[in-house]
Every structure is written in structure tokens, then in C-alpha cells.
Amino acid sequence: MSATSPQTCTPYLPSATPPPSPPVLLNGRVNTAANLLVDDYDGQLDTIRQTEYPQLFDPQSLDRGEKPQLKTVYLDHGGSTLYAASYIKAHTEAMLLNIPANPHSRHVESMWTQAKIDQTRDQLLNFLGTSAEKYAVVFTANATASIRLAAELTPITPDGKFCFTRASHTSVVGVRNLVNEMGASVCPIEFNEIPDVVAPEATNGTNLLAYPAQCNFSGERFPLDVANTIANAYADTEGHPPWWVLVDTAAYAASSPLNLDQLTAGPDFIALSMYKIFGAPTGLGVLLVRRSSIPYLRPKGYFGGGTVSGIAFDREWQVYRSDIESRLEDGTLNFQGILSLQHALDAHSRIYHSMENVARHAQSITAYAQASLRSLTHSNGRPLCDIYGHTSNADYGPTIAFNIKDNSGRFVGFVEVERLAVMAGISMRSGRFCNPGAAQGWLHLPTSELIRHSSMGLVCGDDNDLIEGNPIGALRVSFGAMTSKQDVDVLIEFLKWNFCNYSIMADPVSGMLCTTSTDAGKAIHGHKASSLQAEVEEVVIYPIKSCHGWIVPRNMAWEITQYGLRFDRLFVIMRENSTVPMQQKRYPAMALIRPRINAAKSALILEASGHAPVEVSLRPEQLHLEDIESCVCNSHVQAMRVRLKNISFWLSAVLSVSCYLACDPRLLVSNITEHAQLKLSADNVHLARPGMSFANQAQILMVTCESARQVEDWITQEYRFDTAMDKAEIGPMQYRPNIIIKSRSTGARKIRPFEELSWEAVTINGAKFSVIGPCRRCQMISIHQDSAKRLKEPYSTLARKMRVDGKVVFGVYLKTNNNSDFYSTEHCSTIRAGAVLDVYSG
Q1: Which of 249, 291, 331, 440 reaches 20 to 30 Å from 300, CA-CA?
Q2: Rounded to an integer, what distance in angstroms lies between the CA atom of residue 430 and that of residue 475?
């Protein structure tokens, strides 16, 4: 079979939604959270958390000796668990009192380091329930590197195949590319198909089977003794069986003992990640290689420093080191990380005594959590959570994947849930968790749909969560050795408070049921807007995307172009070697950069506290522009780098990160002559989004004072103000609008909160704008624009009160209806504060 067209077994995808999961059973009876006891290490868990994991608590409450106040509810142990304080202290002290050195040298410090590395190998093997007699410890960069190395060492033949099970991590799936290069075939399978796949009558050549001990999506666990099944099937075969077995234990080993010596025939390869178990060190993985398999390994191609005992420069002659560890560990080991691992093992043993204790605790906290999640229902009896797995007919580890449904059974976007959880101090995970097979299976996502989503511009990690009402990912909570019942209780209360009895299609103010997003405004008021009288309160532009806004002076008329307001999102700040503009939600200090336009000088003045102002010309010929690649919302945009060192230095100093200014050159020019001088390529013009510059979704964002006031009232009623933010500061500007409107004092009818959701168009000073939909909001609106501090409000309240079609929204997007040539000044429209606004509704 050729490498370019491997034989592929199509994985099974269920065609119908599975029936609801049965109740959790414990000792033969229906299990509710109230019936469950959470193992707490004989009453020591609270002490362990406060002394070993102070990062979970408000440090001031710990210092005062008060009852510790939780700072973070950490439920992402599947991503990385927490490191113990005593471990970090012991390692720090050892680093200060000793001199860890390159083990390839021969001085005293080097020999001391090598001895510590050898001790750590033995200590780790003992922790995993085996010894150096049965397994070799090969240190790698991470579990992914371990998986790749195992694949490279397996002597797969062209007539063989690589099989991996549905629950495999992307790092395992990626082996298929290596196998394609070997000319072998690739076959994704279900775990229960393994006996048939590895049977002698179905086997040709030498093959590799890979599977996870625990699915990192659903938490489902799989037996470690598959290698024993293969050994029995080929008991009469001399040498190594035709099937090699790789087990990914990165997720499993964090909360359960491996006890490898209890396996009659262990796997050939076992991949592990150290920070998944101990919280640190990162950048250190382990590949266990079964000693009895070593004579049959494929000879390793590349060799690096330390792997040979003799080598010639002018002839292809080298002698490899005899021990497998030195032969496979290219270059200098991460010896500081390995020495750290020894302290991690010591601390883990001292705190928890055994992995059996950790496993018992993890099992009990998982049972309590999933029973608590299943107990959440809307008042009409519909379940709040759609849990993937955790049925009585399979074994599951401390990981639960789920989605939220409203009271009519519609899915709520998992991105919205996660954003609100972040504001509540709860750390969880969302997405597909680098597990394509499990995600496709549980979410009923055929490959054709994934390909269609990709063609639509969707990528892993973006903000898309529902497509045509169905989730393309999930929420995941995962538990560790130090997770407490309190952590789970906080999660449950968070879900109750924010989502129980919530309806995606209900209007946020009236509670009336809506069928479309624009119905939200119509349902409130039930009348046309013809009698409405409103005016522009403020016009705001953001010359640099994600930085502070500049309020246009009230006596100044501001130009409207086909790209929106003149100079709005003209510039972006880019990190070196990145194609995505920096955003305030990742770099809050961007709020401290205050731009203002000096129209007389055609210049942009940048100011920031503690830094001298700097001036940026708005004339393209003075900016030394250079083409770069840039993307906004997964779409290519036209961008050019501003090659002015003083501007780059100033921005880098303010933001404490190396960065530079870039612009959309079309927004700099004001007539056809200047535009021609830029000599923009046809390719660049083609890449630009029609009618858009660096704005995310639309040209202009409009909000009303009345809607902002409604959110203030909600916050006041629930007493949820942050101490750092007064009510007066949660005004319209907090939502980063371009146009703020309000009711006219002499008007016959006032604007009602969120009425703007029902508008179809508005006219301001003769310029007509289409209302193209509500603005979806994120945590960025809770970044204090004066201090750059992350706060809870107004996002937390808005997320509970103002969701339309399952999304948190505030304000509406406008699109200009000006069809005149942008570069012509004959039909220039303007807008200014105080201008009258006319509303058009359907």
C-alpha cells in the first residue's frame, strides 16, 4: 500500500442521539449528591489545601489567620494540576545549596547531577509500580514527544498498519503521518474492535496499536492489559508479536496508580507527562520502554550529543551508547527539571502517601460532581446539563464533559458559559480538548461537517460554539488530588444561579418568548418607533484597536466613510512574528494607551501615564509602510507595518512586550491621488474584507444610554458592584461604542431599554445605517478603562440578564449605506454629538 493512499477504516459515528444516561448507581441504589461522601484523606484535605496549595486562596485571609477565602475554584486538572508548596520550596532550596551541572561533564557537580538523575529514574519507576528490570525511563520534552519517539522506534512494515482508538489524543492521531511516510496503512478503530483487529487471521506484517488509558474528553477509562491479550494470541510466536502496543497514560496517571508489575505482559511503550501528575516541571515527559522489547526496536535514525561513544567527522562511522536511555535521549537532558521531579515525588508521597489514596479521593469527588450536575433541572423538569458519558456500564476517571441546555432543551453556547465562569473565579475548559475522535462521537459531528466548518473560517480555539443550534465542543471539569467538595458546590451554585430556568429565546426584560433575535426588542414594546425622538450623545472613535477611545469634541462634525467612522480602528498593535493583532482582553494595559486626533496636524497623539506623549503622522508617506500579513476573526486583512522605531519602542515600553504599530493604509488617505501613490497590490486589495478594516464584526457599534442604565439598575438590585468600580463608571463608555444615543428631552416617546434590538435602520444627519444585529460581548467590557484592572461587572450581570439566541449581547452593529466612492469628497457624510436620530422598524 502506498504512503499517499493508505487503507483507512472509517470510524463509526452514531447516527442518532443516545438515550439519556441512567441514574448513577452506588451500592445498588439510585445515587444523589446528598447520599455521597467525599473522601477527604481522613479529614486532612482542608489542611492540605491551605498549607500546600495557598495559590487557591486570598493571601490576605491566610495571613490574618482567618477562615481562608477561596480566590479560585480550579477545575482544569486535566489541563494541568497544581504543584505543592513544599515541593517548590524543597526544589528551590536544593537549587540554591547545590550546583546542578551538565551530566555530560566529569567534574564533581556533573557527577552529582548524574547520580541524582539515576536516583530519580528509580524513584519514578517505583512510583509507577515497576522497576528498572522491566522498564527503561527515557526522558523527553513532553508526552507528545514520547508518543512520537515510540512511533519512530516501532518497526512497522509496509504491509503493517497503525491502529488507534476513537478516544485518542491528537498527539496519537498525528502518528498517522509518520506511518504514511513508512508506507503502512492507517486504521482508526473503536476500542471494542481491538480483539478482532489484532487476531492472527487479520494480521499482516508488523503493526502498532495505540490507545489512551483515559479519554481526556469524557474521562472514560480503558484496560491496561491489552498487551496481555496480544501476548496470549501469539504465545507460539518466536520473538516479538507482530503487534506493538503504545498506551498514552498522560490523563490516567494523574489520579490513578499504574501498578505495572501487576500486568502479565505490559505495553511496549507508556507515555507520561510529569506536570499532569505533579503540577511541575513542565517541559518534561517520560517514555517507558519495556526491556524485553528493546532488542526488536527500529534503529533510531538521528543521533545527538551524548548518544554516541565514538564518532568520526569524515566518515559515516559512529558507535552508539549501549544503554537505551543514553541512546535515545538526544542532547543535554532537562537536568534541572529532572532534579525538580525528585522533590515532586517526595512531596507527593509525603502529602498523599500513595496513589491509591489519590484514586479513592478522585473517584469520590467525581461521583459527587456528576450526581450534583445530574440533579440540576429547570422548573419544568428538563435537565440543565447534557453529560457525555459517566454511565454505569463503563469506567470513568475524574473528568466530566457536558453542555448546558435551556428550559426548552436548546443548547447554550459553551463559550458563553466559560466566559461567565471566568468572571465567577471558576477555571474550567471548553472546546474539543485535542480529542477529535471522542468529540466527533459524543457531539455527533461527522467529518464532512468539520470540513464544512473549516471552510467557513472556524478554527479550534475561536469563539464559535454553536452551529445551527448544535454544539461543536463542550465544557469540561476535571478534578485532582486536592479538589474539594467546596469546589464542586461553588460550580453547582454558579450553574444554578446563571442558567436554571433560563430560556435562550426569552426576552431579557419582559420574559416573553421570542423566535428571533430582533423579536427581543419588539416583544418588550409592541409598537413602531415612528414616534421615537432620539439624539447622539457622544461620537467615539478608537484610532488603535483595543486601546482607549477618543471622544470627538461636541462641536466637531466627524466624517463617515464606507469603512465606518473616519480613522476608527485605523491602527493595530502587533507582536513580533504574529499575524493576529493584540487585544485588550489578553493585554489589559492597552486600556492605558489614550490616543487623540490632532486634525490640524493630521497626527495621532499617544499618551500613557508615566510616559512622554508620542506623535504618529496620519500621512502615509511619513510612516515608512511595509506590507505584512494580518488576520482579524480568521480573515486576512490588508495591513502595513509602521517602520518607526520610536513608536515601536514607546508601545513596547507601555505594554512591557515587544510590539509595533500597523495600519490599514486605505484609512489614511482622503482622495484618489493619495491612494494611487501607495501603489497597493491587487492581492492586498483582494484580501481586504469588503467595507471592513480592523473591526471584528461590523463598522460601527451603537449603544443607548437607556440600556446602559438598565444594566446599572440590575447591578444595584443585586449588590454586585466591584469595590474598584462605582456605579457612575459603568456607563455607556464601558461597552466601547462608536455612537452613544439617548432620548431627546423634548421627545414624545423615550427610548426603552434594549429597544434597539428591534430596529432595522437609523438615519443620523442624513446618513442612513442598516442595523445588522446585536453585538456579542466578552469579558473585555469588564476591564476598567482607567486602571486596566479586570473586574466582574458589568459582564457578570449582563451575562445573566442579557442573552439573545444564547449569546451575551449589548448594543447593535451598524453598517453604512453610503454607496459613493470612498475616495471622493463630493458626497461626504458627517455625524456629530447632538444630531437627531430617526429610527426605522419593521
Answers
A1: 249
A2: 4
Q: Do 658 and 633 fall into the same domain?
A: yes
| Degrees to nearest 5, angle at CA 729 with 724 and 730 | 100
143 to 119, 165, 250, 358, 584: CA distances (angstroms): 21, 17, 7, 22, 33
**Among residues 658, 687, 716, which one ends one of the domains?**
687
Minimum mean pLDDT among 22-31, 383-392, 548-557, 717-726: which range?
22-31
Q: What is the DSSP letter of 383?
A: B
Please state, as a whole number, how many other Cβ atoms lie within 10 Å of the Cβ of residue 607.
Answer: 15
Q: What is the CATH number of the domain that holds 746?
A: 2.40.33
Per the structure block, which three cell numbers stand in for 807?
449569546
Task: Note whether residue 133 is domain-resident.
Answer: no
Position with higher pLDDT, 74 vs 521: 74
Rounded CA separation 226/214 (Å): 14
Category of 817 on φ-ψ map: left (φ > 0), alpha (ψ -120 to 50) or beta: alpha
Q: How many residues does the chain have?
A: 842
DSSP SS3 for 504: coil
**633 carries an active-site annotation:** no
Point out the domain boundary residue: 687, 716, 747: 687
Strands 243-248 and 207-212: parallel
pLDDT tens readout for residues 616-655: 999 888 888 888 777 766 566 778 899 999 999 999 999 9
| Single-letter code of the amino acid located at 602 | S
CA-CA distance, 547 to 688, in Å (whole number)?
22
Cα(378)–Cα(386) distance, rounded to whole angstroms? 13
Do 737 and 710 belong together in one domain?
Answer: yes
Same domain? For 484 and 600 the reply is no
Span 693-698, average pLDDT: 71
Q: Read off the DSSP letter of residue 17.
A: P
**Whether residue 491 is found in the same domain as residue 383:** yes
**Three-state secondary structure readout of 431-460:** ECCCCHHHHHHHHCCCHHHHHHHHHCCCCC
Average pLDDT, the chain: 85
* Residue 803 resides in a domain: yes
Q: Considering its fold, how many domains does the chain have in total?
A: 3
Whether the link from the prior residue into 18 is cis, omega within 30° of 0, is no
Q: Do residue 720 and residue 835 come from a single domain? A: yes
Do the domain assignments include residue 707?
yes
Please check the confidence at residue 74 and state whether its pLDDT lies above 70.
Answer: yes
Contact predicate 484/498, CB 8 Å? no
Of the candidates 187, 215, 385, 434, the residue annotated as catalytic is 434
- Within 289-430, residue ranges assigned H as helices are 324-328, 335-352, 355-375, 414-423
pLDDT, position 50: 94
Cα 305 to Cα 326: distance, rounded to the nearest angstrom: 10
Which position has the grid cell 496480544?
230
Write down the pLDDT at residue 619: 87
Note whether residue 711 is domain-resident: yes
Helix (H, G, I), strand (E, B), or coil: what is residue 768?
strand
Q: Are strands 285-290 and 135-140 parallel, antiparallel or unpaired?
A: antiparallel
Q: What CATH number did the domain enclosing 443 receive?
A: 3.90.1150.10
Q: Are 639 and 573 members of one domain?
A: yes
Take residue 684 and report the three cell numbers written for it.
492586498
Taking residues 329-347, report their average pLDDT: 94
pLDDT in tens, 793-827: 888 888 888 877 777 899 999 988 754 443 344 45
Task: Give me the domain span that covers residue 47.
Answer: 25-76+355-499
Say yes or no: 707 and 835 in one domain: yes
> Cell triple for residue 597?
486626533
3-state secondary structure of 654: helix
- Read off the C-alpha cell for 367: 461521583
3-state secondary structure 592-624: HCEEEEEHHHCEEEEEECCEEEEEEECCHHHCC
Name 799's Cβ contacts closer than 8 Å, sequence gap at least 6: 416, 419, 420, 423, 498, 808
pLDDT the model gives residue 841: 79
